[in-house]
Amino acid sequence: MTRNKIWLCLAHMSETGEEMKLIKEAFDTNWVVPLGPNVNGFEKDLEEFINHPDGRGTPGKRVIALSAGTAAIHLALVNLGVKAGDEVICQSFTFAASANPVVYQGATPVFVDSEPGTWNMDPNLLEDAIKDRIAKGKKPKAIIPVYLYGMPAYIDEIMEIARRYEIPVVEDAAEGFGSRYRGQAVGTFGDYGIMSFNGNKMITTSGGGALICPDEETAKRILFYATQAREPLPYYQHEHIGFNYRMSNICAGIGRGQMTIVNDHLAHHVHTKDRYVDGFADVDGITVHVAPEDYMEPNYWLNTIIVEPEKFGMDYEQLRQVLDAANIESRPLWKPMHLQPVYKDAPAYVNGVSEKLFRVGLCLPSGPMVTDEDLEYIVETIKYAKK
Ligand SMILES: *Cc1c(COP(=O)(O)O)cnc(C)c1O
């Protein structure tokens, strides 16, 4: 029997075709531009989604829809005044898009390692790094913690340190859409939060992102920079350098459609996690990465496992090849930024956690396109591989 390949995380559209309806409506009404009713509607949907029923932490937060999550990080840094020669603290264990916008501004990323519970920024190491950078003569201009694989970070601790040193926080919640920390949506704790709607994220607009802004005034400023920084005059007058970063009304139509099924997506990712946890419960040497605290509610965007070769009998790369031969896509965890050739000269505060995880972890197929039958097949394949 030949099986179709089981992919890591495929986009999934609503069964009722909401996305197509909204795209068609955009065409029918000739809103085929980077503004329009779908963009406004999508932003409203996102604001409602991140707003906790109690209003905890989020009152007045505004969301601006953009062309990518990377653009959202970039605009946050622009509006925070990050410029050439500045330093910005970034999580080392992440996708390069978390740190690259720092370099777009001519600034230098300073990498901070993770702690082993959440795999996200280690608050103690963060404070060490801040102190050391200040002692060396440069106070960091911003901190970019990440919610890797949708796992909440120890954000209360990170925010406490950031406030004490008066450094703004830009939360990279690109992978954390729908994750909550003490009931509050991730991305709403810091000065800014970023979302991504790339093809493989929790929801997609084919490609896109958004910036969670602290208030209406900041949102207006972000919109200004996102649309070429045009001054409010009848002719084109420019006093700042702007960007072409607005989301199109077509993409926003997909986003609005996706928002009708986002809770199903979230439930399915958690269901997938449960199946993996149950499936590997009696498999020595395989551990599923789950929330270390009960006040953390990850979206389990990508489910990840740790493979201990001494117990399992093969390492993560050998297991990846076994899965590949069985038509199952899996992938090593993110390679830390401080190990990336392009960032070899950037300062880094490391403790060994991300380097170790990179050498033992694998992402497994997750998301609505992965069926229960697929999950059973994946678990059985891994059990069968065990030596
Ligand atoms: C996907 C991702 C981004 C970038 O989002 P895009 O929409 O692809 O630009 C940033 N940070 C992390 C951690 C991501 O996974």
How many discrete structural domains? 2
Q: Find the CATH superfamily of the largest domain.
A: Type I PLP-dependent aspartate aminotransferase-like (Major domain)
Strand content: 5-15%
- What is the oligomeric state here? single chain
Number of strands: 15
Dominant shape: globular
CATH third-level topology of the largest domain: Aspartate Aminotransferase, domain 2
Measured between the Cα atoms of the first and last residue, the distance is: 25 Å
Average pLDDT number: 95
CATH-scheme architecture of the largest domain = 3-Layer(aba) Sandwich
CATH class of the largest domain: Alpha Beta
Please state the CA-atom Rg, rounded to the nearest Å: 21 Å
Assign the structural class, choosing from mainly alpha, mainly beta, alpha/beta, alpha+beta, or little secondary structure: alpha/beta
Please trace the helix and strand order, writing H or E for each element. Answer: HHEHEHEHEHEEEEEHHHEEEHHEEHEH
Q: Counting H and I runs of at least 4 residues, what is the number of helices?
A: 13
User: How are strands sequenced across the largest beta sheet?
Assistant: 1-9-8-5
Ligand roster: pyridoxal-5'-phosphate
